[in-house]
Description:
There is one protein chain. By secondary structure, the chain is an alpha/beta fold. It is 44% helix and 19% strand. The chain is built from 18 helices and 16 strands. The strands form 2 sheets. Strands 1, 2, 3, 4, 5, 14, 15 and 16 form an 8-stranded mixed sheet that branches.
Amino acid sequence: MPICRMAAIAALLFxxxxxxxxxxxxxxxxxxxxxxxxxLPRRTVLVRDxxxxxxxxxxxxxxxxDALRVSGGGAYLMPGLxxxxxxxxxxxLHPVYLSRGVTTVQYLNAFDEVLDWRMDAPGPRIEACAxxxxxxxxAEEARRRVSAYAEDGFRCIKVYDDVSPEAYAALAAEARAxxxxxxxxxxxxxxxxxxxxxxxxxxxxxxxxxxxxxxSQAQVDSIVAGMREGGIALITTLTxxxxxxxxxxxxxxxxxxxxxxxxxxxxRPWAAGRNRYLRSSTPVPTxxxxxxxxxxxxxxxxDAAVPVLLGTxxxxxFVLPGASVHDxxxxxxxxxxxPYQALRAATAAPxxxxxxxxxxGTVAVGAPAELLLVLGNPLDDVANAALIAGVMAGGRWLxxxxxxxxRAEVAAALxxxxxxxxxxxxxxxxxxxxxxxxxxxxxxxPRALNELAYQLWKLEDRLPDAVRVFEANxxxxxxxxxxxxxxxxxRAAAGVME
Length: 498
C-alpha cells in the first residue's frame, strides 16, 4: 500500500481516540453479551487498556475523569464479527473489514507475507492458514508438511485435493498434536467418511458435501452425528455459493454495485468475457436447489451443536470484504438459524475455535475490547448488526465518521489501479503501460501488477504481454522479491533468456 495512504488511514485511527486516554466508557448501552441470548439493558461498560474492566448499571460503574465517554443512547454493544474463510488480497483492505465491524479474519491459502500482515494497523486480528495442500500420498509426507508450516510460523493449514486417506488422517493428527488447525476441502478423491475418520478441525464450505456425494437422509444423519462427535466445525460460505448462480442471471446488476473497495485488478475476471461461472454447465435451478440443501445442512448442524462458523470466501467474485459478513448473517437466518445462532457463528464460536480463552467473542469483564456498537437489536434482526455507530479494536474507539473516512481513503488508494485497468480495457496494453511509466511506482501495488500479468498469461493466453507487465512491475518495484520470481518464471515459459 502507498506509504502516504497507509499514513492517512493510520492517522484516522489514532485521532479517533484522544491520545493519553487510558479508558473508554460506553454509557447507556444495551449489552449483547453472546454468552447467552439475553440483553443487559441500560448498562455502562468500561474499557481499560484494551480489555473490558467493568459492566454495570449506569450509576454503579466508576468512570475515571480522563476516560473517553461514548454516549450509547440506547444502542447495542456486541462483540466484533469474524470472517472465518477469506482469501488474502492486500492489507490495504483491512480498514474496510474493520469499518464493517469485522475484528477477526481467517485467511485461507495464506502466503508467508500474510504472517507479517497480522502486525499491520489499522485492521482486524489476522489468522493465517497455509496452503493449499495437495498431492500428499504418505503419512510421513503429511507430517513433514505440518512441521514445515509450523516452523514458518503458521498455526493453521488448508487441505485442498489429491490427498490419500492415510496422509489426510496423519496431517490432521499431527496438526492436533502441535496445537494447530487442519481445515479445508474434502479432497475430491475422498469422501465424507474419510473426513469423519480424519477429524480435521473444520470443513471450509458447506458446499463440500455436494461432491462426496450424499445419497440418503440416513447419510445426512451420520454426517451430522460424526461432525458433532469428532468436534469438526463447519464454515458456511453460503453467500459465495448463492452468488455463483446470481452471476449467471444478473451479472450486470452485480457489476453495478459499489465495488470501489475491491481492487480493480482483482475484479477484472468478474466481467462477462472472463467470468468462469458463466461457463458452468450446471443448470441454474439445480444450483439453487443445491444451495437449499446446504442451508438445510447448516441448520441441522447448528441444531445438533456442531460448531458452525461464519465464513464468506471473500476474495471470490462479488464476495466483498467486510460487507459479505452481513450477507452471510442473512443467509444463516434464511437457512433457519435464529439470529442468536447466526451471530454466535460470527462471534463466540470463532473465538472458541481459535482457542482463545480470554473471553473473546463475548462482552464480559476481562474479555478483549473487540466491540461493535449498533443502532438496533441484532437479536431481533441480524441486519441491525450492519447499522454501525462505531467499532472498538486495538484499544481505540472508531466512531462512524472515522470508519467512513477510512473507507474513503481505501477507495482513493485504489483509484490509480482502477485507472490502469480502464486504460487497458479501453486503449490496450501499450497505452496502459505508457500511462504506468508516467505514474510514480509507489501509487500502484506490486501485487496488483503481478496479478494482472498472471491474468494475461493464464486466463487470456497472452504470455508476451504478461512478460511486459512483469517487467514493468520489476522496474517499478525492484525490491519486491515475488515480482522478480514471477518475471523469471514467465520468461522461462516464453523461452526468453535474461
